[in-house]
Amino acid sequence: GLLVGGAYGVNFAVVYRNRRQSNVGDLEFANTVHIPRLLEGSSDGAGRLFELKARAGTTELLPGKQTPTWGVNGTFLGPTLRARRGEKVRVAYDNRLPEATTLHWHGMHLPATMDGGPHQMVEPGAVWKPYWTIEQPASTLWYHPHPHEETADHVTRGIAGMFILDDEKETEERTGLPRDYGVDDVPLIVQDRKFNDDGTMELRGATTMESFAGVGGVGVLGDTILVNGTYDPHLKVTSTLVRLRLMNASNARVYNFGFTDNREFHLVAQENGLVERPVPLRRIQLAAAERAEIVVRFEPGQKALLRSFAPDLGNSFPTERMDGGEDTFDIIELRAAQKLSKSRPLPERLRDTPPAIEVPGDARVREFRMSGTQINGKDMEMTRVDAVAAARSVELWDVTASSDGMHTLHIHGLAFNVVTYKGKRPPAHLRGAKDTVHVPPDEKVRLAVAMPRHVNADFPYMFHCHVLKHEDRGMMGQFTVVRPGTEDQAPRTISAHH
Ligand code: C2O
Ligand code: CU
Ligand code: CU
């Protein structure tokens, strides 16, 4: 293992006892991290076209082992898609997988019919062709399958990728943020996996903690970390500032990212857009499906180890309950070159308009209780509409979680702000535009939810726990968005589209 000395020696002793290497052996950060290919698509009068083909294959994820995997335009994970605000986007998603699946645009503000949720199954051999206009600020979104009851399986096998949105008004050109993809603006898709001796990935979850026999089961918790699909990775840094787009694409695991030398970094964006001003932090905790963009400063020749420290999962949910107490993982080593190109200084302001959603005094308040694998005591039902919202309205969603589980709420098609977190004003790193939030056990989180402008009384958006096995077990609900004033007439039962 790698030993780090210095001023934090005492703390590190604690960290080290807890530290998880991997089931393969001590990490040496021997492999250059894979940077997913950037797919900018072909542009013509009709917009930007992304051609995606999902297929099964095998990948050498661990040294010397072949793992059966799924991928998009490759055998594991998929390319990074990139588009700008105002552009029309079209996708041709060619499903060459052995099973029906869907492709969902997590964090995208788009009509429900283009969202790729469980109502939009793509049969093997079929091509799905959604299209929409990018109508939201710069952000780091992602795509992944969403077939009802099979999402964890399809994501674990390898279908997932990043979707970067640019925005001329709040753009990096103006803000001076690093923006050279794969050079000083680097995607880090973090996933935990559990491998069997023959190289296959564990897909179901075997231990009590993982299974649903035990209370709080969350599906597979892997003991091996992959970054962009790379095991034991390092990244070469060539500039004084590097922007990392951290994305937790794991099934359930919560990471508490920080550097082993305890260096400060700046949060510049959350899931659904840039924050107002860079937020100095030493740790950032990301639950499943949360993203954060951080900017890290380097001196020539320096090495920095990004680690996930034991996450804070709430008082009634001690960390040992998550995975036997061992939930400190090394993620990736960053290695600065002897000569670094000088980055522009980090700007003081990142956007003109605050990411705050204005809440009217008469905002509708809804309550959601996450417990077991249900929301408000109900399992997901494809034909049931759980909520009808007025287009462009702002609602307050009060989300509580029971003491017996680990839950993370995600809402499709929109952005929200966290208004209160555990009854208080949220910490700085939870104050921007988000689409996913961890709901600690026995606590309440109040959200200001900015409803989409796209109206369709017959086709729902989803909201659900992003612990994928919870979602698969039915911890999901549906809402439709209708013309203001027509909420009462909207159907509460819809047909299940397939
Ligand atoms: Cu990340 Cu409903 O999805
Ligand atoms: Cu989503
Ligand atoms: Cu959950």
From TrEMBL:
Q: Does the keyword ATP-binding apply?
A: no
Q: Start and end of every Plastocyanin-like domain? A: 57-169, 368-482
Q: Which InterPro entries match?
A: Cu-oxidase-like_N (IPR011707), Cu-oxidase_C (IPR011706), Cu-oxidase_fam (IPR045087), Cu_oxidase_Cu_BS (IPR002355), Cupredoxin (IPR008972)
Kindly give the SUPFAM superfamilies that the UniProt entry links to this protein: Cupredoxins (SSF49503)
The record, for Pfam families, names: Cu-oxidase_2, Cu-oxidase_3
Q: Is Iron there in the keyword field?
A: no
Keywords of this protein's UniProt record, alphabetized?
Membrane, Metal-binding, Oxidoreductase, Transmembrane, Transmembrane helix
**In which domain of life is the source organism classified?**
Bacteria
Q: Which CDD domains match?
A: CuRO_1_CueO_FtsP, CuRO_2_CueO_FtsP
- Which family does the record assign? Belongs to the multicopper oxidase family.
Q: Could you identify this protein by its name?
A: Multicopper oxidase domain-containing protein
Q: Which organism is it from?
A: Streptomyces iconiensis
